[in-house]
Design goal:
The protein has 436 residues and is an alpha/beta fold. Strands 3-2-1-4-5-6-7-8 form an 8-stranded mixed β-sheet, with helices on both faces. Strands 11-10-9-12-13-14 form a 6-stranded parallel β-sheet. Helix 10 crosses helix 12 (267-280), helix 10 crosses helix 13 and helix 14 (298-309) crosses helix 15. Helices cover 45% and strands 14% of the residues. The protein has 3 domains: 2-201, NAD(P)-binding Rossmann-like Domain (Rossmann fold, 3-Layer(aba) Sandwich); 211-296, N-(1-d-carboxylethyl)-l-norvaline Dehydrogenase, domain 2, CATH 1.10.1040; 298-432, Rossmann fold (3-Layer(aba) Sandwich).
Length: 436
């Protein structure tokens, strides 16, 4: 079976390499010729643990290739995955222009039966629009081929995407006919050996499942952040509370980590999109609306924490920041909490020295006034406070004696609750964390 993945970003590249690892012949297509040239030379456009080796192995063994020629790649493939960006619009809705462009190019290119699968995260009804766009391009052709559309949302966690593709919790396939169902089940057949649950449903259900999953996880994050605020008022410990409720199997321990709020390419965009298309359909998702509001005000709360440690005034002060990406094990800066927090501190007169193991190149473009440093200790030199923004493993065992010497005053604001408050106070630090 030949597969074409259109869009060689995070989702498309992981998907293409993953299917190639199963033994499928895959071509990843992108309009960006520079990106394709880099991929052909073995250079990854993103940082994702294990991805470079996975791509290199499958290219070497002839199962994975890259191309800018969408029409030719479409004609040579049976299953076509659309994995292009679906960014937010200013009103919170989803920009489907990239999806439409791909669908129309597919319509102009296909010469036989194809299964057109939407992998990008899209509002309910998008697959129906894809069908309409393809049919518009086929209109008037006496030899117009039959095709199927389907929805197969991704559930890849950045930093663990390879594992998530190879050993997923579930596969969700939304189809409109038996032929497409059979083909996609066959494509995912290697996972049946691991007894991976496969949910076969209709297309709207598959589309909405992705949004429901992300909205629920985002809700857990906003919920525990509100509980953390209560803990700070009452003297309770949010980590103990998270453990106390998380051990209930109905709740679970994941996504109950208080901090500076959620970011990344999915949760902010998808919660806003869910709110938007619910309103457009005449409904409301009030819980999700509250989740969005809570997260949007989180940056300001974290800024105030830092300013409190600085004596109520950031003017002329230097802040050291460890971690810039929205989570560890990725270089993704999309809607990272660090952007709002550091920008707010700069507006209040602070200077920022920062270090991140992977995200400094992208962060430098988004935060041009931030001084990017060589390592954790370089960032601390001469700073009035150290802020732990992202919980990369290498920040969990800092040489605290060295940090204390480098800072102008022994102050740490730990926005990820990496360290133990009692231990930090015993080490002589003025230490502030979240919900403890």
């Amino acid at each position: 079976m030949n597969v074409c993945v259109i869009g060689s970003g995070y989702v498309g590249l992981v998907t293409g390499a993953g299917f190639a690892e199963f033994g499928v012949q895959v071509v990843c297509v992108d309009k960006d010729a520079d990106k394709i040239a880099k991929l052909e030379s073995g250079e990854m456009p993103i940082y994702e643990p294990g991805l470079e080796d996975l791509v290199a192995r499958n290219v070497r063994e002839g199962r994975l290739s890259f191309s800018t020629d969408t029409p030719e790649s479409v004609r040579n493939s049976l299953v076509l995955f659309i994995a292009v960006p679906t960014p937010s619009r200013g009103d919170g809705g989803t920009d489907l222009s990239y999806v439409e462009a791909v669908a129309r190019e597919i319509g102009r290119s296909i010469d036989g039966y194809k299964v057109i699968v939407t992998k990008s995260t899209v509002p309910v009804g998008t697959s129906a629009k894809v069908r309409g766009w393809v049919e518009e391009e086929l209109a008037g052709r006496s030899d117009a081929p039959h095709f199927s559309t389907a929805s197969n949302p991704e559930f890849l966690r950045e930093g663990a995407a390879i594992s998530d593709f190879m050993r997923p919790d579930r596969i969700v396939i939304g189809t409109e006919d038996e032929q497409a169902t059979a083909i996609l089940k066959d494509l995912y057949r290697p996972l049946y050996l691991n007894e991976t649950p496969v949910v076969i449903t209709n297309v709207p259900t598959a589309e909405l499942t992705k949004y429901a999953a992300n909205a629920f996880l985002a809700t857990k994050i906003s919920f525990i952040n509100e509980i953390a605020d209560l803990c700070e008022e009452t003297g309770a410990d949010v980590q103990s509370i998270a453990r106390g409720i998380g051990l209930d199997n109905r709740i679970g321990t994941k996504f109950l980590h208080a901090g500076p709020g959620f970011g990344g390419s999915c949760f902010p965009k998808d919660t806003r999109s869910l709110v938007h298309f619910a309103r457009e359909s005449g409904n409301s998702v009030e819980i999700v609306e509250a989740v969005v509001r809570i997260n949007e005000k989180r940056s300001e709360q974290m800024i105030e924490k830092v300013i409190d440690v600085l004596g109520g005034d950031a003017e002329g002060k230097t802040v050291a920041c460890l971690g810039l990406s929205f989570k560890p094990e990725t270089d993704d800066m999309r809607e990272a909490p660090s952007i709002g927090i550091l920008s707010g501190l700069i507006e209040r007169g602070a200077s920022i020295r920062a270090y991140d193991p992977q995200a400094m190149e992208e962060a430098g473009q988004l935060l041009p006034d931030v001084t990017m440093c060589e390592n954790s200790y370089d960032a601390c030199e001469g700073a009035h406070v150290l802020v732990i923004m992202t919980e990369w493993n290498q920040f969990r065992m800092l040489d605290l004696g060295r940090v204390k010497q480098l800072l102008t005053q022994p102050a740490i604001v730990d926005l990820r609750n990496v360290y133990n408050p009692q231990s930090m106070m015993e080490a002589g630090f003025s230490y502030l964390s979240v919900g403890r």
